[in-house]
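Section 4.2 – Deliverable D4.2 (structural model, holo form)

The reporting period included a commitment to supply a predicted holo structure for the target in complex with iron/sulfur cluster. Inputs used:
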Amino acid sequence: MLTVPISKFADMGFCELKLVHSLIDGARPRFRPCVAEGTRQHALSAREDAKKPYKEVSEKELLDSLRDEKTSVELPSESVRVRFEHRGTVFSGRIDKLMKEGRKVFVVDLKFGRGGGAFAGKYECQLLSYCKALRDGEVRFKGGGKGLAVFSGMELYYVIAEGGLHAGEPVPFEEARLLPRLRRFDALMRGEFERRELACGEPGKCALCEFGHLCTHRAF
Ligand code: SF4
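Output (structure tokens):
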């Protein structure tokens, strides 16, 4: 079964042809220096977060607490991996930060100047997918422990925190916004397209694209 990183949906949201270069062609990206800086900031943020006095709990206590609609729980940064299956493909990923307040569960995505801002909309499918995995799929916790459909019955939201600091408005998870994108992903993987139809045609995006050096449909 094909396994795809959920983060690839950000490529699809940016330009569908980018996803083709990445997943179908297996092309090597050429990242700009700001991407390495964003990765460094991410690691720094996770190290700072790890200094918080998180309570040691058993696997059972953790799952009971997460399934309890009255508790508030903050999980360490980058400690939650998720996966779900859809029409023969497994989508998997790691959540930057997961927080729960009563019945509300928040997927917090930290951005450090890596294409947030004007192109922040590209993350929508990625973040909806994390929410779906939390509700329907498998959740694994760093250090051991896992559960299925742990957050079924909860209200799920995603939040983009630009610069890792200023959290935006929580956006509620709606499966109806995700399913057409999953169908589109299937169609792209089946090759039901002409490549030129998938190119974004936006010079501003192509200038930032890590496949711009090889893309024959690049806009200038
Ligand atoms: S260079 Fe432009 S058209 Fe080509 S994959 Fe990148 S964003 Fe899309």
